[in-house]
Specification:
With 336 residues, the chain is an alpha+beta fold. It has helices at 8-27, 32-43, 48-54, 64-100, 119-133, 147-150, 183-191, 232-247, 287-292, 309-317, 330-333, and strands spanning 137-138, 144-145, 176-177, 196-205, 217-227, 252-259, 262-272, 275-285, 301-308. A hairpin with a 2-residue loop joins strand 6 (252-259) and strand 7. Helix 5 packs across helix 10. The radius of gyration is 46 Å and the shape is rod-shaped. Bound molecules: 3,4-dihydroxyphenylalanine. Its EC number is 6.1.1.20.
């Protein structure tokens, strides 16, 4: 038998006090972790409520039902309070997350400036387009060339004075950076039989002193046509048709010239800033060049031409200095 050291009133007072402190504490909880700790603290197996209920045995039997009911009500009240606080904290957490991740669709986007085609590339594209329209196919060759393809096969042996005009950069193995796209003529003819109509764009190199119209690295477009019965008239007609297509009625002139790989040879000038600017070299392919690739010069004739892309771009856009193409100055490039 236990002796009653407690009466119902005392226990009731303890329960009421517990309710008051617990409700106050729960209302102040700020995180879900603390909420769980507090739940265990008040309602857990060894929690505050259990501690009080553990003393129930010491109550007079008549007080127990009242206190039991009271304890249950307290438990439910605290549980409800904890639940409400949990909802409040969860809602706040979601709200904070939403605010952090808000996507403002009215915000201006990031500006990415759109690039555009460099004037040299657009000029090359226009020239290629015209020749493709005339039935030519595009070919190309390496920028690092052998002496044979760049000079020798083009009828320019080592002691030929014309080499002086095309001094270039030599590599330790004897190869060189090609001085013109004419080397593509040889490479193409070696692998193909006539009839031939090719157009070959590419970068070229020369040990030139740079000035307003010369650069050490520049671009050319080569054309080559080989067939039976081609004459200088075909060459002239092709070049004229091409220039008229590109420039409209800008004045041009043919000038007799000399290249080791053509006979006869000519250069063509175009009006640029009040003076004549040489834009291309051309001629009838020298019979020796045809022999070098195994063609019969009695059966086939042909014409070739090499265009300076920079020069064409300068005439097209009235640009005063070739060096502007390479400095990447946006104030210049943005205009195209
Ligand atoms: N390769 C010459 C140069 O770079 C240009 C040239 C002249 C090309 C006459 C040709 C040609 O195909 O027939 O100066």
């Amino acid at each position: 038998m236990t002796t009653s050291t407690l009466d119902g009133q005392q226990l009731q007072a303890q329960l009421q006090e517990l309710q008051a402190t617990a409700l106050k504490a729960i209302a102040e909880i700020e995180t879900l972790d603390t909420l769980e700790q507090q739940r265990i603290h008040y309602l857990g197996k060894k929690g505050e409520l259990s501690k009080i209920l553990g003393t129930m045995g010491k109550l007079p039997a008549g007080d127990r039902p009242t206190i039991g009911t009271l304890a249950n009500t307290l438990k439910e009240t605290l549980q409800t309070a904890l639940e409400q606080q949990r909802h409040k904290l969860q809602a706040a957490q979601i709200q904070a997350q939403l605010e952090a991740e808000t996507l403002d669709v009215t915000m201006p986007g990031y500006f990415r400036p759109q690039g555009h085609i460099h004037p040299l590339n657009s000029t090359m594209d226009r020239i290629l387009d015209i020749f493709v329209g005339l039935g030519y196919t595009v070919d190309d060759g390496p920028e690092m060339e052998t002496d044979y393809y760049n000079f020798e096969a083009l009828n320019t042996p080592a002691d030929h004075p014309a080499r002086d005009m095309q001094d270039t950069f030599y590599l330790p193995d004897g190869n060189l950076l090609r001085t013109h796209t004419s080397s593509v003529q040889i490479r193409h003819m070696e692998l193909n039989d006539p009839p031939i109509r090719i157009v070959a764009p590419g970068r070229c190199y020369r040990r030139d002193n740079e000035d307003a119209t010369h650069a050490a690295v520049f671009h050319q477009i080569e054309i080559l046509a080989i067939d039976q019965g081609l004459t200088f008239t075909d060459l002239k007609g092709t070049v004229k048709a091409f220039l008229a297509e590109l420039f409209g009625d800008v004045p041009i002139r043919f000038r007799a010239s000399y290249f080791p790989f053509t006979e006869p040879s000519a250069e063509v000038d175009v009006q640029w800033k009040g003076r004549w600017l040489e834009v291309l070299g051309c001629g009838m392919v020298d019979p020796q060049v045809l022999k070098n690739v195994g063609y019969d010069p009695d059966l086939y004739t042909g014409f070739a031409a090499g265009f300076g892309v920079e020069r064409f771009a300068m005439v097209l856009h009235q640009i005063d200095d070739i060096r502007r193409f390479y400095t990447s100055d946006l104030r210049f490039l943005n205009q195209f």
